[in-house]
Write a structure and sequence with these properties.
By secondary structure, this protein is mainly α. It is flat. The N and C termini lie far apart (about 55 Å).
Length: about 150
């Protein structure tokens, strides 16, 4: 039986493990650029441990979890494929353009139409990433073909 408690134990443990991996990777970054990844890894580790610990201590009524049907499973698979394509295209297209395309495509797919609002949200995300993270914070994110 799939219960909320078992789901929380597994997902919390997985998040804690992911946080440890990010922490270990952030310690390999030289030149003071590892602070944000370190804080992110630490936050994910603590959050994962909190979810797992809370699930471990829970002894209330059993809450069953309904899993996605066939269409829900395909929606999850397509979302993961789109995410993998986004990561794969970051270097080539650059973070702003890849983000515009990813957010546009994902929202358009998940909402079932509405291309104009999906494109506007995607553009807002891409412009925000460019001006906030690349220009203002001067993070070294891939710029891709637009800025060569």
């Amino acid at each position: 039986m799939r219960t909320q408690r078992s789901v929380d134990l597994v997902s919390g443990s997985a998040l804690a493990l992911l946080g440890l991996v990010v922490l270990a990777a952030s310690m390999q970054i030289k030149g003071g650029m590892g602070t944000l990844p370190y804080l992110t890894g630490f936050s994910v580790l603590v959050g994962g441990l909190a979810v797992a610990f809370q699930a471990y201590r829970y002894h209330g009524p059993v809450m069953e979890v309904s899993w996605p049907d066939r269409s829900g499973m395909w929606r999850n698979i397509i979302t993961m494929v789109m995410l993998a394509a986004y990561v794969g295209l970051l270097e080539v297209l650059g973070t702003p353009l890849a983000t515009v395309l990813f957010v546009f495509g994902l929202i358009w797919y998940l909402r079932g139409g509405q291309p104009v609002s999906s494109l506007l949200i995607g553009l807002a995300c891409g412009v925000t990433i460019h001006f906030l993270f690349i220009q203002a914070l001067e993070l070294s994110l891939p710029l891709g073909i637009l800025f060569y």
